[in-house]
Write a structure and sequence with these properties.
350 residues, 4 domains, 0% strand
């Protein structure tokens, strides 16, 4: 058997792995030594034995108390049923005598118990009553003897009803059985309940073991996941730089191809607009206009060339020609001014 199995079986639940125990042999020996003096709950064997004996005594006292408590409650229920029946049915004189005697005896006994022994009481008695005052209220001895002889039968009948009710609650199919069969089932009901309780305790123990196992597996899986995450992180750090350049190159090629496709698409749209805008007739008209414009441009160029030749001829004459041109310009300007003044004078004479 492995060390972890021994520790899990003989010691309280603890998260120890086989690897931890193998790495700490002295600690393993200490645990094995402690397992000889401890039980599964962590108590020493002597203390566990004393605790078991104490629980046994507690259960014994609890059983005794439960018996007296059940008997008292059954008697109180008999009295409650009696008061309920007095409202609906006519009871016989014997029933009235029995229940009144029982109630009187029960009340006197309870009050006597509350007063307690006179020699141990330091405070004044309750309501000034003494034990002797209460004893005077006791029913007659012959009535008490007669009530005491009948009481076990009524209590037994009341308990039988409760047992049958409990049986029908536990096994609803028993409601239709005969009274004899119900009594037989009630006789074995305690064993059945004990068996079911043991099954529940066994299921709880298994659940506890499964919980401990689940916690161990969870801790192991968490460690494995952490190691896997660390390995993945290291792989990413090592291979990210290698793959990033290739990824950037592929992205650049993709963007270049996409850009070329967009340019071609724009050129195609441009050509489509031009083809829709300029028909064959319009192109022919534009050709004629262009030919005429080119002809006019050629004529202007020829005239400009002639003017340039004339200017070149004038430039040969030098400063004297410039003086004559300037004088001619001034005379022409003076003639224009006099012509304008003459026109204004003629307008004024009219």
């Amino acid at each position: 058997m492995s060390l972890t199995a021994v520790c899990s079986k003989q010691l309280p639940p603890c998260n120890l792995s086989e690897e931890d125990l193998l790495q700490n042999p002295h600690f393993s020996k200490l645990l094995l030594g402690l397992s000889q003096h401890m039980d599964e709950s962590g108590l020493s064997l002597t203390l566990a034995k004393e605790q078991a004996q104490a629980w046994k005594e507690v259960r014994l006292h609890k059983t005794t108390w439960l018996r007296s408590e059940i008997l008292q409650r059954v008697i109180q229920e008999l009295l409650v049923d009696y008061y309920v029946k007095t409202q609906d049915t006519n009871l016989t004189s014997e029933d009235k005598k029995f229940h009144e005697t029982l109630e009187q005896r029960l009340l006197v006994t309870e009050l006597t118990r509350l007063l307690g022994p006179s020699q141990e009481r330091e405070m004044p008695p309750l309501l000034g009553l003494e034990r002797a005052d209460l004893l005077e209220l006791m029913p007659r001895s012959e009535d008490f003897v007669w009530m005491r002889a009948r009481l076990p039968l009524d209590v037994e009948e009341q308990l039988k009803k409760k047992c049958f009710t409990l049986l029908c609650y536990h096994d609803p199919n028993s409601d239709s059985d005969s009274e004899t069969l119900k009594a037989a089932k009630v006789w074995k009901l305690a064993e059945v309940l004990v068996g079911e309780k043991q099954q529940c305790q066994g299921a709880k123990s298994q659940q506890k073991e499964q919980t401990v196992l689940l916690e161990k597996k969870s801790a192991t899986y968490s460690q494995v996941l952490l190691r896997c995450l660390a390995l993945l992180q290291r792989l990413l750090q090592e291979h990210r730089l290698k793959t990033q350049s290739e990824l950037d190159r592929i992205n650049a090629q993709y963007l270049e191809i996409k850009c070329s496709a967009m340019i071609l698409k724009l050129r195609m749209e441009e050509l489509k607009i031009l083809s829709d805008t300029y028909t064959a007739e319009k192109v022919e008209v534009h050709r004629l206009i262009r030919d005429r414009l080119e002809g006019a441009i050629r004529l202007q160029e020829q005239e400009m060339e002639k003017s340039r030749q004339v200017l070149s001829t004038y430039e040969v004459l030098g400063e004297e020609f410039d003086r004559l041109v300037k004088e001619y310009t001034e005379l022409k300007q003076a003639a224009e001014n006099k012509r304008w003044a003459l026109q204004e004078f003629n307008k004024a004479c009219r």
